[in-house]
């Protein structure tokens, strides 16, 4: 059983909650602080939206398999066995502000260190929600396996707002140096510069929350402002540490629908039309390009990528996005996961 302890931010309530999230086979369970039980339904909707549970995975994979013979070959074993649990194909939709800083931290980094940096930002903010009993594990020196040691009462922090994080960082004599001591490396300067630029722009826009301000500028569902992919990406790239790939990741993984919900009544139904659900989140089409995806694209999809585009990542991505349409982001996650698994087994 996988168990996670974390804070989550509900944009529509502008409120943080501490949750214990557990997965057992295909079932997902969560526990709340006793003071937050009244928000149980809100958390259910949040988790369903975050994990895009309204999208029937079987229908999704069937549609993906129709797009290209390589994808059909990749998915065929799962269709035969009727087992899709190993695919774990999910585009998590998260708070845009947290997503922005998290992907700045992700530059040339691994998941463990990225998580550690995000936790450090929460500790710096020092906005404690509650405390939870968390199991502590240590590595067995003989077997290398993790073994349970004890339960320990630990604080759960909210992810800090731009104002709070900037204020806390400025309390140190050297904000960049302080983050470097926490092993942020060269990303420390990116974080501080982004905070300064972000606050400058946000203050000129009134008093929106961080999420609201981001969505005003990157969500295509905002009727007040015509936002296309090129504009949203260009807008994000003004922040330090945000290049083309990081901007694509921020767009793909940000929850852009909460404040500009197209069909809010659909949130009450367990499943809705596959096409409507995917098209509603337009940025699901984005295919972030890293070394793995570049290698896969050149190796497995030369019939899609124009020869003249094979040395230009942006043009290669454009070819694949034109071919895969609204399923592009899902296919990227699927291909990336499969490639990592293959590399581990060799």
TrEMBL record:
GO molecular function, one term: 8-oxo-7,8-dihydroguanine DNA N-glycosylase activity
InterPro entries assigned: DNA_glycosylase (IPR011257), HhH_base_excis_C (IPR023170), Oxidative_DNA_repair_enzyme (IPR052054)
GO BP annotations listed: base-excision repair, AP site formation
Any one GO CC term of the record: nucleus
PANTHER family linked: 8-OXOGUANINE DNA GLYCOSYLASE (PTHR10242), N-GLYCOSYLASE_DNA LYASE (PTHR10242:SF2)
Protein name as it appears in the record: HhH-GPD domain-containing protein
